[in-house]
Each structure stands twice: as structure tokens, then as C-alpha cells.
Amino acid sequence: MRISATVTISTVYPGASGGAIFSGRDDTGAPLRFVANRDRILRAPVTGEVWSIQGESRRHPTYGDQVHVEQASLVQPTGRLIIDFLLKHPAFDGLGIGKAKATRLWTKFGPGLHTVLSQSDVERLGDVLSVESAQKLAEAWHAVAEEASVVSFLDDHGFDIRLANKVRRTCSEAPLAKLQENPY
Asked: Which H helix or E strand runs over 105?
């Protein structure tokens, strides 16, 4: 059976020579387990990241249903996946964003939370958080969202998404803007 899902990564077991076995939950909270060869993923996912994954579900005699990844890409979290992203991604460690604050942010902004964070709207975030916490959250969001934007741009334009890390190293400031100016 073909599976297409966007999930927040909850556990990762990287392979010795690339690839990974990992699990995550979709926006309904349903758990899924994935098996990805190194030629199918850009890099091993990080706990808390959001990935869009397509593959074939197969039953393993010991581990049960697993999705064998055919295509996977890092994406910016949207919808309720933002809550798990804020709670689990290491970029947000130490910011004081726990379940209560993440839920309050979602309650206040709903699906618009992605836009508020992407625009680094510290003033609006300050309705829920202290100004200092809002500033730190906006900075952390910008840092992790940039990688997902570069990956999405490359994928949308038919480039090998493994090129994303090279692009980010070469263009340390505003890599997406530089790609949009000249993708070649």
C-alpha cells in the first residue's frame, strides 16, 4: 500500500553508512515507522523535524508495519505539527517553550502561527511570551526554517536535494534568496 504523510520525527536510528530507520507522528497523532536507504534521504532526520515522506507500507514479521521510503524531504512544519516541532527540535531547547506555551501559541494564532514565526513578528509573539523569549524563538525558527526552505526550493526545481547542504555552506547568508536570484 502506498503511503504519503507529513510527520514530526520522534525517534531516529541512523545507519552506519547512511540512511536511517525512524518513526514519527502525523498531524492526527498516528504513529508511523520508516526505513530509508541512504539514496532516499538527504540526511538522517533529527528528532522534532518535519518531513514529507512517500513510500510503500510493508509488514515486517518482528516490527510490524513499516514504510519503505521512496522519497523524503525536510519541510517547514505547518498546522498542529508546529507544536511538536517546538517541543522536540533541539534548536528550541533552553528557550522555555514547553507544552503549555506551545499550546497557548497555537490557541492564539492557530494555523497563522507559521506566518507569525516566519515573519519574526516578535510583537505578536509577545502577546503570549516575554519579549526576550519571543525574540529567541523567532531567531531559532528562522535558523531551522531556512534549511527546509532551501530543500523545498531545490526539490521544486528538480535539483538533487542532497545539494542543500552544499548550498547552505556556500551561501551562509540568505541562501534561499540567492537561489531565487540565480538557481544555477
From this structure: helix 99-109
**β-bridge partners, 141:** none
Residues 49 and 100 in one domain: no
The DSSP 8-state label assigned to residue 143 in this structure reads: H
Exposed/middle/buried for 177, CB within 10 Å: 0-12, 13-18, 19+? exposed
The pTM score is 0.73
pLDDT tens digits, 40-94: 887 889 898 899 999 999 999 998 999 999 988 888 888 888 888 888 888 899 8
CATH code of 8's domain: 2.40.50.140
In total, how many domains does the chain have? 2
**Average pLDDT value for the chain:** 85
Q: Tell me the three cell numbers of residue 91.
A: 534548536
14 & 90 share domain: no
| 154 and 116 inside one domain | yes
b/e string for 100-119 if b means 16 or more Cβ within 10 A?
Answer: ebbeebbeebeeebbebbee
State the average pLDDT over residues 98-112: 91
Alpha-carbon distance 143 to 21, whole Å? 26
